[in-house]
Fold:
Amino acid sequence: MRYAMIVNSRVVDIVVSETLPNYPKTPDGKQVIAVKCGEEVKIGMYYNAVDNTFSIEFPEPEPTQLDRMEAQLNKSQDEFRQEGADMMMSELVKRGLMV
Structure:
């Protein structure tokens, strides 16, 4: 059997063995897991544990609640800046300083 050795969703080694390979943890303490794979899987590919697939590109993570909140805050700040600029232009036009 062919196994992909996975650390942090990335293939770090390919092992051909009749028994399930057992790697020690990485120096920083991360677990190395063995996943059965086909000939198309190469070192450096990414592994999606949810649907048990391998890919060349790392999937974009779903935005967290914090990401969504920051996007809303940034959007709001941009809108406030635009409103301020519009009010300033309106006042300058009203006073005849801008045409």
